Amino acid sequence: MSTTPPKPPGYQLPEEHYLNATYGIRSWLLTTDHKRIALLYLASVTFFFFIGGIFATMIRIHLLTPAGYLVTPETYNKLFTMHGVAMIFFFLIPSIPAVLGNFLIPLMIGAKDVAFPKLNLLSWYIYITGGCFVLYSFATGGLDTGWTFYTPLSSVYSNSAVTPAVIGIFINGFSSILTGLNFVVTIHTMRAPGMTWFRLPLFVWAQYSTSIIFILGTPVIAITLLLAGLERMFHLGFFNPALGGDPILFQHLFWFYSHPAVYIMILPAMGVISEIIPTFARKPIFGYTFIAASSIAIAVIGFFVWAHHMFLTGESTYAALAFSLLSYLVAIPSAVKVFNWTSTLYKGSISYDTPMLYALGFIGLFLIGGLTGLFLACLGLDIHIHDTYFVVAHFHYIMVGGAVMGYVGGLHFWWPKITGKLYPEFLARLAAVILFVGFNLTFFPQFILGYLGMPRRYHNYPPEFQVLNVMSTAGASILALGYLLPMIYLTWSMRYGKVAGRNPWPATGLEWTTASPPLTENFDVTPVVDWEPYDYKNRPDLGLQTPTAPTLAPAHGDD
Amino acid sequence: MSEHIVSPKIYILIFAALMILTITTVYAATVDLNAHFAGLNVIVALLIATCKAVLVILFFMHAYYSSKRTKLIVFAGFFWLAIMLSLTLGDYGSRSWDVH
Fold first, then answer.
1. I need a labelling partner for A186 at 20 to 30 A (CA). Which of A1, A43, A527, B40 fits?
2. Residues of chain B whose C-beta is under 8 A from some C-beta in A?
3. A147, A84 in Cβ contact below 8 A?
4. How far apart are CA B4 and CA A220, in angstroms?
5. Range of the domain at A459
6. Residue A412 is part of a domain; what is its CATH number?
């Protein structure tokens, strides 16, 4: 097999770009280029995804049998805790903002870099430092409190390595805050001439909304976990009733951040979907203003709903009633997005390239995850399904079916821009289908298990639940294949993939007007934006006006 | 954007005000205000602390001289804090209510 990557006529990699501008490990570890920092994050979050994935695999293998023969009950507690901590704090929360956001926001708004490039690099080092503390916790006995760190279990009774984990998450919070701050200032101050607020790509609106949550919410979780750690280390009475504290106060403070954290995960994915859908439907997105406003609405309303996690943990009935009603409100901006995406598809010239498969998968899975969230927001029904596998299935439909599908779809969509290369389209489509099937086989049975009463976080279960658990484990193995395939062919494509050209899909965003991979400075000259977002009618430069025009590279590598 | 230069006189005045308010806090803690109204000691201490925080934010952190956008961000921070405190206290306050 030839090792020379084939190149479509007319397309060559630019001689100098951000990947080859400088060489050596030092040039990467001291870089202030937002694109390189994005790749540092890509490698780091992928590492934590692997760690979390290993724990998930062990959980599913353990649950193959009702008695659970693989690990002891104590170890099982640690497995689901460490799976949650690794996936939520070190993969899901930073994934789209820190990887795709870092790479794309300056490109999308026509800037050379983010507003504070050194802070951007610092945020990665803070993330790595926090990650090291958490890995230390995993390696020195593990963690068994659940990712929620509920007190007084975490602050008094747990014999596991809670302290380093709490310190690690506290440190990691500053990484999120700096990233959010950087994005807000960048979007406010560094937009290219003509790039007005309502010409911003919807991905940028989503990142802006996410950044608001980062800045306003993260300090609360950081200080809350620090207080729990101080109570554990120095016996200060914050949450322990024996010391005059209140455990419900911990839950209020924890969920004040951690429910909006769900929107940190899903909002950027919604931004990705808002870019993919119009590109592969070849028409302007329906209801641009409403989608942009709904991102802000989700970020704001998301801060009013946290105590729906506490319906059965001792909060007052009246507060529960209020939070139940408020929780329903989030469905409105979420539904606005789904209706607008489907309206965009209506009469579109749809092509089923890999990113579009992920986007369509996202819509279906997010719909199921979102609607089952309404079940859980319902006070009466929540009493029945609280802390069951129904909840596990619901949040995996949002976090994996939504956020991870968006992330993987986004990686495929912008991979040609990031690397300058195309991936093998057939394999990529196959992986998308495998992922979709594997995901549903893993998590849909868990809705039924939960509805039938199987509690979450138990290491064993009655024999009548075995069939559904075996289905779930079988699905998890398919899901794992669906994740491994992209890791393999995307890595392969970096060396052997076809040269992508500037705009292989073609898409309308500013990032597609520069070279692939981009220059270190992003653009040869500062771009001037004189077109509306997602406008396919008035963009002859995209080559869509004349179908026979040979100005475009094939959209995928196997053609 | 050029930075607003604050005269040392302003800083000294604010510092003096903070010191006076600190002394007031200490003095108020020694007086049994609760005898007049339950919880008044805490309310007075919090009011003085709020005044001090406002002075620090407005003058030491230059919010007073900043753009409207910066003021909006400062306000948002407190608004979010208010959301957290009010809804959490809503739970604590309503726990003793009867449910029929």
1. A43
2. 69, 76-77, 80, 83-84, 87-88, 90-92, 94-95, 97, 99
3. yes
4. 31
5. 31-542
6. 1.20.210.10
Domain boundaries, given as residue ranges, for chain B: 1-66, 67-100
Instruction: Give the separation between CA A443 and CA A453, rounded to whole angstroms.
Output: 15
Amino acid at position A103, single letter: F
Q: What is the pLDDT of residues A467-508, one digit of tens each?
A: 999 999 999 999 999 999 999 999 999 999 999 999 999 999
Mean pLDDT of chain A: 93
- What value does the mean pLDDT take over residues A244-248? 92
Kindly state whether residue A103 falls inside one of the protein's structural domains.
yes
Mean pLDDT of A166-173: 96
Interatomic CA distance for residues A537 and A528, integer angstroms:
19
Is residue A373 assigned to a domain?
yes
Between chains, do B90 and A188 touch, taking CB under 8 Å as contact?
A: no
Residue A550 lies in a domain: no
Domains of chain A: total? 1
Structure tokens at A388: 């069951």
Chain B closest-CA separation from residue A260 CA (Å): 12
| CA nearest neighbour of A288 among A356, A213, A204, A352 | A204
Tell me the residue type at B36. H
Distance between CA A538 and CA A358 in Å, rounded?
28
SS3 A390: helix
**Tens-place pLDDT, residues A325-361:** 999 999 999 999 999 999 999 999 999 999 999 999 9
Cβ of A216 and B76 within 8 Å? yes
Q: What is the DSSP letter of A289?
A: H
Q: Which two tokens stand for residue A116?
A: 């504070």
Please name the residue ranges forming H helices in chain B: 8-30, 40-55, 68-93
At B32, is the secondary structure helix, strand, or coil? Answer: coil
Q: Which of A395, A486, A473 is nearest to A438 (CA)?
A: A473
Residue keyed to tokens 């009935």: A317
